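FORM 7B: Structural annotation worksheet

SECTION A. Query
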Amino acid sequence: MSNYRIGLLVVSGLLAVAAGSTAQTDASKAAASSLDTPRAGWISDEACAADHTKPGRADCVEKCWRGGASIGHPEWKPQRAVFVADGNRTIWIVENPEAVKKFPAAHVLVSGKFDAEKKMLHVEKIKLVQ
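SECTION B. Predicted structure
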C-alpha cells in the first residue's frame, strides 16, 4: 500500500472519529436540554382542565382525581392530573401525578420534561407561584 493511501485512510479514520464525537456531543446536549425551561400554569384534572385556572377549586380537582365512587357517583371515573400552561392554555397530562398531588387547583411553576408529541409532562420540580 502506498504512503498516499495510508495517509488517506488515517485522515478518513480521524474524520470518522471526529464526526462520531460531534454526534455524541449533540446527543449529550439534547439529553441535558430535555429538562425544559420552567413553565407557569395550573394543576388540574383531565375532565375540568382549563376550567380550574383560578384559586378555590381544589376540592373539585381532588374529587375528580379520586372519581365519584366516594361520593355516590361510581359512573364518574378517576381523572388524570394535568398541567394547564399559562398563556396558550396547553394541557399536559402529568406522568407522575404524585409530584403534583399537594397542588390541586394551584398556580405553580413546573420544571420537567415536556413531551410535545404525546402532550405528557414528567414533573421534576414544582413550586407555588405567588
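SECTION C. Observations
The chain has a mean pLDDT of 80. The helical segments are 3-32, 58-66.

SECTION D. Sign-off
Analyst initials: ____
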